[in-house]
Amino acid sequence: MPIYKNGKPVTASDGSVMHCHGAGILEYGGYYYLFGEDRRDRRRVSCYRSKDLVNWEFRNICLSLDSETKRHYVRTDLRLAPKNSGPMTPEEAAAISLQPIGHRGANIERPKVLYCEATGKFVMWMHFENGRDYNAARCAVAVCDTVDGDYVYMGSFNPVGNMSRDCTLYKDDDGTAYFISSARDNADMMIYRLSEDYLTVAEHVKTLWPGQFREAPVLFKENGKYYMLTSRCTGWSPNQSGWAEADAIDGHWSSIRPFGNETTFNTQPTAVVKVGDVWLYIGDRWDPSDYLNSTMVYLPINLENGCSIDWASEVNIDGGKITTFAGDIGELRIMLPGCTDYLGGDGYNVFTKKLAYANTGLLWLVEEKSGCVVLRHKDSGRCLSSEGVLDEYKDGDDRLLWELRDADEGKLFINRRTGKSLLAFGRRVILTDGDDRHFGGYTFVKNY
Ligand code: GAL
């Protein structure tokens, strides 16, 4: 039975761990082709294929810093004449370069590929940055005669002059293709209709949710209705995604409604694919401490009452049918505010980590056992615990007295002295003593 284990590294048929992040899926010739970020060495976009979305075969590094480049005029400035020949200005040379700064290569994110019937070519759109910062905010295009061949890089640009970061592609039933990307420093989500050859933007058709800062767009259509998934902008840290709907791609889009839990089960949208009658959500589970450890999560989308997903640790994709196994909740991580570092993260059901108690020199051990969080004092061995009836706690020095209380979202540790809460047990647990002194807003994230 082809069973996909969510959040676990995937070993491809050649025995290597799959690197295909921020991926997009193209169904072609009886296979699912997955194109995604591969940041190893000079690689940029790798392609894998599968018949069942579980067993993946490595096919090619479709784009690397050594890819062939070809000049392609895209009108993003005030020059009147297209220039596909003649000497290039330094700007033009930079736009078709994958190594814009010294030896540092371009950063390529969220590559997506469509097949263009009109030209018989495969066209890749992606997010381009210079490899140093996120200020270029450009999209880039590459093209190939075969689905998983060596793509020719056609350069990067700002679509109709806009910034363009997280992005996706969508091909409608009539073959019209759209590029969707975050603009204006991610404040707005843009929809652009592509030219017939899919190589450039023909028209900006919609500005969605201006000022609402959305990214990680994914678009699909079911029963004549368009659905878009997006996330908020919190970098590599997960947040609650949203979904919206529209009857026409350039028509009225609904407001954004919550999708998944507070962390979208620790994922960020990257793709969807239809399996039988069901749309399968594919999210990146980023590892901010080591990007290359990032994994993928599949969850079937329920469209019966809006658009929703439930957690499943295993997804069985068998003969076009999806069944899921909820399983355990996974590990718990402690995230520092404003940081991409995690404390913790080892082990699966149980782990123990030290939590420094600011500069007082005290240390807590944070343990998770079968879904319960336990804070144990290193020296006294006493616990702040969500288990059992332990409801008072005094630290070794008699300095703090805590009380465990039931609260709407779970349990709260109340500091008897200040009346402020230390932490709450919910799916997302804020760990602070309220004075922001001791634990200063550490956040527990259940790593679904
Ligand atoms: C995320 C985005 C990713 C990547 C990351 C970099 O918000 O969705 O694709 O750009 O930020 O911090």
Structure description:
It is globular and about 60 Å long. A hairpin with a 4-residue loop joins strand 11 and strand 12. The chain contains one helix and 34 strands. The strands form nine sheets. Strands 2-3-4-5 form a four-stranded antiparallel β-sheet, with no helix packed on it. The protein folds into two domains: 323 residues, Tachylectin-2, Chain A; 116 residues, Trefoil (Acidic Fibroblast Growth Factor, subunit A) (Trefoil), CATH 2.80.10.50. The protein has 448 residues and is mainly beta. The C terminus is likely disordered. The structure holds beta-D-galactopyranose. Beta-D-galactopyranose (GAL) binds next to strand 6 and strand 14.
Topology:
Elements lengths: L2 E3 L15 E8 L2 E7 L5 E8 L6 E8 L25 H6 L11 E10 L4 E9 L8 E7 L7 E6 L9 E5 L5 E7 L4 E7 L6 E8 L5 E9 L2 E8 L8 E6 L10 E3 L8 E8 L2 E8 L9 E6 L13 E5 L2 E5 L6 E4 L6 E3 L6 E7 L4 E8 L2 E6 L5 E3 L6 E3 L6 E7 L2 E6 L5 E4 L3 E4 L10 E5 L2
Summed up, what is this model?
This protein is an all-beta fold and 448 residues long. 1% of the residues lie in helices and 47% in strands.
Name the features:
globular; 34 strands; 1 helix; Trefoil (Acidic Fibroblast Growth Factor, subunit A); Tachylectin-2, Chain A; disordered C terminus; single chain; mainly beta; four-stranded antiparallel sheet; 2 domains; 47% strand
